[in-house]
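RECORD TYPE: inverse folding
INPUT: structure tokens
STRUCTURE:
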């Protein structure tokens, strides 16, 4: 069925492509945060364990919203680890960092999503796609606050 939502196919594709990168970064940060939740140790265990749980729970909801927006634009949302790995700009961890290094890496991951989301704003703004702009604005607010809270542990 032809899609006629007031946004051209070219613009919908550009937006979906950028949202796919936001989705991939969000998924990779979700995995990293959940991993850290399970494996954090040390005197900050309790507070970080709880903070990481709040963060990965929020990311899980965001991942669904981002994927559903891609689908609403008429495109397939990436959904495999291979696809996410190709699209993401967040590195997977291959070692087991200490608690404060986990915090630092999560702060950097949230900052990376901020940069990726800002890039996605351009085609959404150009197409006057307010729904995507709203979604990305919410993500910017959440990731900026999360990065700040994580950085506060390191000061």
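DESIGNED SEQUENCE:
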């Amino acid at each position: 069925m032809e899609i006629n939502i007031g946004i051209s196919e070219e613009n919908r594709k550009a937006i979906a492509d950028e949202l796919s990168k936001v989705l991939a970064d969000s998924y990779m940060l979700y995995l990293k945060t959940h991993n850290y939740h399970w494996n954090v140790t040390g005197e900050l265990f309790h507070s970080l364990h709880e903070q990481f749980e709040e963060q990965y729970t929020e990311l899980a909801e965001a991942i669904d919203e981002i994927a559903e927006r891609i689908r609403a634009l008429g495109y397939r949302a990436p959904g495999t680890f291979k696809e996410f790995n190709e699209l993401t700009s967040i590195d997977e961890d291959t070692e087991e960092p200490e608690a404060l290094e986990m915090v630092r890496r999560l702060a950097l991951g949230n900052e990376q999503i901020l940069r990726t989301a800002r890039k996605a704003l351009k085609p959404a703004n150009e197409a006057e796609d307010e729904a995507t702009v709203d979604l990305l604005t919410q993500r910017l607010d959440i990731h900026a606050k999360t990065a700040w809270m994580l950085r506060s542990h390191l000061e």
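NOTES: The mean pLDDT is 97.
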